[in-house]
Write a structure and sequence with these properties.
Structural class: alpha/beta
Radius of gyration: 20 Å
Number of strands: 11
Helix content: 25-40%
Number of helices: 7
Length: about 250
Amino acid sequence: MEGPSSLEYEVRESSRARNVRFRLSLEEGLVVIVPRGFDVRRIPALLEEKRTWIERVSRQIDEQRQNLKTDPPSQLPNQVALQAIERSFRVQYMASSIRNTQVEERPRGDLIVFGKVQDSEACRIALRQWTLGKAKQHLVPWLNTEAERRDFKFEKAAVRCQKTRWGSCSTRGTISLNAKLLFLPRELTSYVLLHELCHTVHPDHSAGFWKLLRAHEPRADDLRRALKGAGRCVPNWLEYCPASGTGTTS
């Protein structure tokens, strides 16, 4: 389909959707998710309202596309720098006959990828699994420390390699964190953790939510703006393994 100014998009109907949502990614382009029975004739007007967001995310996608030309996801890393925990690892690849490619972390800060190292996809999957494990090891305790220090309470925490969100908090108090937060500067990762903790008090982005967040983090507005461009900190071998998105809004 096409929207204003011949903007191409795909409509997907979802029985779980309560509101119209827009998702824009390098892999799928612009996707409009609507509740069942929604009048699709309303979509062009809604797209016009979201034009600023669409243009901003489109610029980010163009930047990612250019990055892919110089740093393709098939190119495996020689170093993994986790800014959030201020750790850097040198990566080495060793061929072996084991069935599943794995990553072993050595005490001196080396990562050994061993197995079918000629298979770049298998190496990326192994590195991604290592990243998930590292994120669970560091992000969950970090979140617990912040919650205790600032008197927040949440039900449980989960870590995933999410497509479009740095974090989320459910109405039941479950906080989900993106493993990619490890690659962001420490102050931005800290901001995301605090942002989700504030959602345990205010589940929406109401005035009360922003007031609470700013009370705990006076630089919240500056950090929020900086976070919009933080996707460039995530390496392509992780960002596109498997394919991931860039932006979502409702």
